[in-house]
C-alpha cells in the first residue's frame, strides 16, 4: 500500500507542478515584485510556453507509470485520485493548447513578413517535417555544419590597454560561416542580451545557425558588462566591433557594404542605438572617422525605452538603468537628458518634433500654406548646422531631424514579463511618422521574454522571418548599388 501511496504522491506533485507552470505563464509579474522574482518567473513561464512538446512527452510517460503502478485503479488507488486524474487531463489540454499556439507562430511570421519575401527565401517547415521535430526535441540545437572562428579581439592594443587586461574576453567576437567559404555575402552582427550585465557570445539563438547555413556571415559579439562598464561603454564596444567587421570581414567572405545588426533584450537596445547613432563621434572615441553605419536592424524583445516615459514598465526601470547600467549619481531624476539620449524611442520622438518645427518655420505664407519638402529640408539643414556647432563633441550628437534610419525588424512576445510589448508598439508608431525606411513588427501571442534563445517553435519561425526580411533588404541594397550579382555559393 505504501508503494501506491508513494507513486500517488509523485503523480500529484507532477500534476500540481505543471499546473502551476501553466498559471505562472499566463499571469503578469506583480507590481512590487523583485527583479529576481521576475527573472525566475520568466524562466518558469518560458519552459512551459516554449517547450510544451517536451512536457507532453513527459506527461505521457508519467501517466503510463502511474497507471502501471495502480495509482489510477479505483480498486487499489487512494480515494480522491480520480479528481487528480481529471485535473491532470485539464493540465494536459492546456499544454496542448500552448503547443498549438507556439506552432501557429508560423502563420504570424508569414503574414507579417509576406511583403518582404526574397527571391531565394523558403517557406518554414510543416507540421510533419521530421527534421523540424528533431530540432524541437533538442532545446540546445545548433547546426553542426557551421564553421566558427572563435575569440577574435576587435579592440586595438591602445583600447585594450585603456580597458585593462581583463577586458579582452569581453571585447571579442566569433565569426560563423558556411563551410563552403562563400564570397561577397551579407553580414549579420548579433549582440547578446542579459540586462547589460551578463550573457556571452557563445549562447547563440537558433537563427545564428540558420543564417550561417543560408550563407550569411554571422558575427556574435561580446561587450564589456556592468557594473564594471558604464553605459555608453557597451555601445562604444559594439561600434568597435562594427569597425572591425567593416575592415576585416572580407577575409571571411563578408560584404562590408551591407551590415545588419541584431540583438535581443539589452542587446536589442544596443543594436537599435547603433543603428540610430551612426558615425556619432561621441560614441566612437579614437575612431571618429570610421563608418559605423548599418544597413538594417533586428530587435527581439528589445529594450527600446529606458525612460519609462509612458509608464509601460510596472516598476521603476528607469531608476534601475540609471543606477546600475549607466552608473550615474543621483539616479534618473538628476540625469534625465543623459537617459533620454540613451532611449531609442525618445530619439524618434525628438526627430519627429524637429521635423514639425521645421515644417512650421518653413510655412512662410501663413498657417494654411503647406511648405514644400525642399523648404523643410532647408530649415532642417540650418538648424542642424547650428546645433552641431554648438554641441561640439562633449556629448552625443544632437537630433536634427535629418537622420536617415535603416530598415527595422522587431519581434516581441505579448506575455513578456521583463520588457513591455507596448514599448515596441510605441517605437513602431513613432518610426513610421518620421522615416520612409521599412519597419516590420511581429508580435507573438502568449510568448514570454526568452522565446528566441533555445530551440523552440517560435525561435525557428522567427529565424525564417529574419531571413526573409534581411534577404529582401539585401536584394534592394544590391539593386541600388548597380545590381551586381551576389554569389550564393
From TrEMBL:
GO MF term set: hydrolase activity
* UniProt keyword terms in alphabetical order: Hydrolase, Membrane, Transmembrane, Transmembrane helix
Q: Which Gene3D superfamilies match?
A: alpha/beta hydrolase
* The species this protein was found in: Geranomyces variabilis
Q: Which residues cross the membrane?
A: 6-29, 41-69, 89-109
**Which domain of life does this protein belong to?**
Eukaryota
Q: What is this protein called?
A: BD-FAE-like domain-containing protein
Q: Which Pfam families match?
A: BD-FAE
Q: Which InterPro entries match?
A: AB_hydrolase_fold, BD-FAE-like_dom, GDXG_lipolytic_enzyme
- Please give the SUPFAM superfamilies that the UniProt record associates with this protein: alpha/beta-Hydrolases
The BD-FAE-like domain sits at 173-349
Amino acid at each position: 500500500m505504501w508503494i501506491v501511496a508513494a507513486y500517488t504522491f509523485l503523480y500529484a506533485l507532477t500534476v500540481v507542478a505543471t499546473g502551476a507552470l501553466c498559471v505562472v505563464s499566463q499571469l503578469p509579474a506583480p507590481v512590487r515584485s523583485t527583479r529576481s522574482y521576475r527573472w525566475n518567473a520568466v524562466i518558469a513561464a518560458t519552459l512551459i510556453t516554449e517547450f510544451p512538446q517536451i512536457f507532453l512527452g513527459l506527461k505521457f510517460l508519467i501517466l503510463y507509470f502511474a497507471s502501471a503502478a495502480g495509482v489510477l485503479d479505483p480498486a487499489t488507488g487512494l480515494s480522491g485520485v480520480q479528481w487528480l486524474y481529471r485535473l491532470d487531463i485539464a493540465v494536459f489540454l492546456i499544454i496542448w493548447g500552448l503547443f498549438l499556439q507556439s506552432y501557429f507562430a508560423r502563420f504570424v511570421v508569414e503574414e507579417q513578413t509576406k511583403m518582404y519575401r526574397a527571391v531565394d527565401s523558403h517557406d518554414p517547415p510543416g507540421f510533419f517535417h521530421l527534421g523540424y521535430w528533431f530540432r524541437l526535441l533538442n532545446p540546445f540545437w545548433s547546426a553542426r555544419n557551421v564553421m566558427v572562428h572563435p575569440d577574435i579581439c576587435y579592440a586595438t592594443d591602445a583600447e585594450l590597454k585603456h580597458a585593462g587586461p581583463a577586458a579582452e574576453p569581453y571585447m571579442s567576437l566569433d565569426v560563423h560561416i558556411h563551410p563552403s567559404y562563400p564570397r561577397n555575402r551579407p553580414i549579420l552582427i548579433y549582440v547578446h542580451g542579459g540586462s547589460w550585465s551578463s550573457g556571452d557570445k557563445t549562447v547563440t539563438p537558433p537563427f545564428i545557425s540558420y543564417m550561417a547555413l543560408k550563407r550569411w556571415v554571422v558575427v556574435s559579439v561580446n561587450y564589456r558588462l556592468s557594473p564594471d562598464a558604464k553605459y555608453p561603454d557597451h555601445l562604444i564596444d559594439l561600434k568597435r566591433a562594427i569597425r572591425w567587421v567593416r575592415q576585416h570581414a572580407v577575409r571571411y567572405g563578408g560584404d562590408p557594404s551591407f551590415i545588419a545588426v541584431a540583438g535581443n533584450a539589452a542587446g536589442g537596445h544596443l543594436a537599435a542605438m547603433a543603428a540610430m547613432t551612426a558615425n556619432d563621434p561621441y560614441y566612437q572615441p579614437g575612431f571618429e572617422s570610421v563608418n559605423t553605419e548599418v544597413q538594417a536592424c533586428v530587435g527581439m524583445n528589445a529594450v527600446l525605452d529606458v525612460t519609462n516615459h509612458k509608464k509601460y514598465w510596472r516598476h521603476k526601470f528607469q531608476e534601475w538603468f540609471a543606477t546600475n547600467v549607466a552608473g550615474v549619481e543621483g539616479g534618473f531624476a538628476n540625469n534625465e537628458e543623459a537617459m533620454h539620449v540613451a532611449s531609442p524611442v525618445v530619439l524618434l520622438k525628438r526627430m519627429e518634433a524637429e521635423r514639425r518645427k521645421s515644417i512650421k518655420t518653413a510655412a512662410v505664407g501663413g498657417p494654411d500654406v503647406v511648405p514644400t519638402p525642399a523648404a523643410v529640408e532647408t530649415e532642417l539643414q540650418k538648424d542642424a548646422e547650428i546645433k552641431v556647432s554648438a554641441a561640439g563633441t562633449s556629448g552625443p550628437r544632437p537630433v536634427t531631424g535629418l537622420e536617415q534610419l535603416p530598415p527595422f525588424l522587431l519581434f516581441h512576445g505579448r506575455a513578456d514579463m521583463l520588457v513591455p510589448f507596448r514599448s515596441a508598439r510605441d517605437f513602431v508608431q513613432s518610426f513610421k511618422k518620421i522615416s520612409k525606411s521599412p519597419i516590420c513588427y511581429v508580435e507573438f501571442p502568449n510568448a514570454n521574454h526568452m522565446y528566441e534563445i533555445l530551440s523552440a517553435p517560435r525561435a525557428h519561425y522567427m529565424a525564417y522571418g529574419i531571413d526573409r526580411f534581411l534577404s529582401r533588404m539585401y536584394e534592394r541594397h544590391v539593386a541600388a548599388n548597380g545590381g551586381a550579382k551576389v554569389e550564393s555559393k
